[in-house]
Amino acid sequence: RIVRGQTAESLAEHNPEICYKNFTHWGKKGACPIPQFSGNPPMTWKWVIGPMVLYLCERLVRFWRSQQKVVITKVVIHPFKTIELQMMKKGFKMEVGQYIFVKCPAVSKLEWHPFTLTSAPEEDYFSIHVRIVGDWTEGLFNACGCDKQEFQEAWKLPKIAVDGPFGTASEDVFSYETVMLVGAGIGVTPFASVLKSVWYKYCHDATNLKLKKIYFYWLCRDTHAFEWFADLLQSLEAQMQERNNAGFLSYNIYLTGWDESQATHFAVHHEEEKDVITGLKQKTLYGRPNWENEFKTIAGQHPGSTIGVFLCGPEGLADTLNKQSISNSEADPRGVHFIFNKENF
Q: Which CATH superfamily is domain 67-166 in?
């Protein structure tokens, strides 16, 4: 009853539509006594009960999904303290670039942490890559037996609860003929799922695949932290060359955290067939890309087409790509258009 209003008895004697003109004479002789106010009856429940019911239903669904059995089928230890968990769950269906929430009761019974799925929908399992950077990830690392040298039996692996998957902008990749994928640092993980799925679809039926060209940009301070992703690119690069379609995937790796000694090392080995850092045929570039030149080059190579721009990275980079997408799109409906999609961390 914080919100107050004029009482019904007062309204019968003091009509606001008439008395507001003569407020100086209220309480004196006439038909306008001083109005009386009191707290209005409670009304908030009418506006709260609907959203609360929806919220409780959503929490019940999430609780039910988190109770479903999840089986860890494989734990892979990658360099620089990164582990890959391959899991299976009955009825689990995913799309490219989606993410899940993970809880490990052996580490914490209350904490849920989001992880991007790095597997493709065509695979018979779903996977996440976890870099050990905190106490929870360290606990998961130890609970999975990754700190031990001997082989771990599957029944000794910890119980895992999974909630999801949840959608992201990356799901629309297959709606375009040409796409630009930009991953910054750990933001490269959703594109692992995208590139895997593209490869499966390409091998299965390339003629029905709408997507014809991928421009992939990977910006990172240190490629060693994501060496598992470089391995994926190496595999895709080799398979595309076997099928004589090396131009399907065009990628550029930018190492932003470089120093004088790395630049000298880069110059000495630039003429070698494979890059000395990633082992890929595409040489690692130092510094940051000139986005204006990149957009103009791609627009020139694909006139009259709609190009999807997908980013997983920081907000500052999102602003830059959004501005470039707008400035490089033509007003003519028949011209080139860049459609910007983002997910930030």
A: Translation factors (2.40.30.10)
